[in-house]
Amino acid sequence: MPQTRAPTAVIADDERLMREQLADALKDAWPELAIVGEAANGHEAIALVQSLEPDVAFLDISMPGMDGVQAAQALAGAVHVVFVTAHDEYAIKAFEQGAVDYVLKPAEVERLRLTCQRVRERVQQDPDPMEALLAQLSQRLGGAGAKPREYLRWVQASVGSNIRMIPTGEILFFRAEDKYTRVQTARFEALIRKSIKELLDELDPEEFWQIHRGTVVRVDAVDQVSRNLAGKQVVHLKGSDEKLEVSRSFTHLFKQM
User: Fold this and answer.
1) By three-state DSSP, how is residue 26 classified?
2) What average pLDDT score do residues 98-115 get?
3) Which homologous superfamily is 8-142 in?
4) pTM tops 0.85
């Protein structure tokens, strides 16, 4: 019989010590599982899953910026999800359906073994899109009547003495510059006062990727990725001669390109 590939996973938690504790517990509970990446927020988790294509994602429910539920919504059907939470109230009725499992912080090896056994049985099948569960969790986190997440669709920016309404579909990239953030389109550039961090909380993570601490690009605007003389990745954009350097923290985004 051909040898099967070892299962892989990513862990997302904004607390480094919690990521390390869960990784150590997983070594005991599921020795064959390879942890191929760690993320500190939902945006990073999405990028890791899209680039590394793991079998399982352990997502902390409560993370700043983009939480684990929002990340799971963006990744629905792409990966098997196990939610990690410090709060029992998220983990009782919401998980009775059995579509995914949960781990309470700090992860206990015996309980984690049960979770891993359940996940082992599911990784042979396509991931569940978890629609009902995610809707229920979103309501619990956002309160009764919570609406689906709406992302930024246009930007109000200064161009000279005028104010322009720029659809996000026309934006090539955002770049931090002094006290402002530069908004670049194929036809003009503009300035806004929102920081890159604020923008990442409002932009669709499937449409925009952070490639540097101060740079965010629209994925559809990327033409190609090359390497400069220093060996660093450089993004080339459609409709622009500008080249954007990718920092080491984000090189995994373009491993398949």
Assistant:
1) helix
2) 79
3) Response regulator (3.40.50.2300)
4) no
